[in-house]
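Lab notebook, bench 4. Still working through the backlog of constructs that have no structural model yet. Next entry is a single chain of 239 residues. Request: give me the structure tokens for it.
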Amino acid sequence: MKTILNIMTLRSLILALAILSVFESNAQGPDENQLGAWYMYFYNTTFKESNWGIQGDIQYRDWRGLGDREQLLLRSGLTYTPENSGVKFTFGYANISTGQFGTEIDDPVIEHRIYQEALFSNKLFKRLLLSHRFRYEQRWVEDQDFRTRYRYNLFINVPFNNESLIKNTYYFAFYNELFINGERNIGDDRNVQFFDRNRTYLGLGYAINNKMRVQLGWMEQTTVNWQKGQLQFSLHHTF
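Model written out:
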């Protein structure tokens, strides 16, 4: 099992490096030179000693930092971790409201989303902590036909002063996430590309205690039409 995980990890690293080398900046959108900011709270817990739990996140995303809402995302799901499997499965729901860049009157587009995901982790070279997340989404976006999307995210955390993310640990954080559209036709002769977007993140984190971590980093998001940088402030909470 360990050998299989190591092979999958190496393949994931190769995939992430390939993605980084392929997607270049060709954005022409009016917002690409505006540094945005995402403020995020992630939570998870288990129900006493059972294999069941919940996890989710609350995210406020701003086109410019503050005062120009890009998105408000509310997401939560029920989790199940089979005994001795090392894999956490989630079934959840998300509500997303998306605003328009630079408009004084914000008339957001509303999206309802159901998702299923699988998350598993492994370690390489004692301090290379990796997690793999596969997510499948069913999306109901306002004024569009039903859509689906596939996502794969590779997370890498490298603690500096410990071998795990325990209390008082400083660490380096990286992730790369690839988004692929399912249905291409979204109604009224409108189509989307097979490639939806890619996100690459670099940051630094600190474990306040064994249940709470903070991170500050920078993420670049690339779509077919634009590319944009975002500051990210996140709180990760296990309770």
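Notes after review: The helical segments are 2-22. Confidence is low (pLDDT under 50) at residues 2-7, 16-28. Flag for follow-up if needed.
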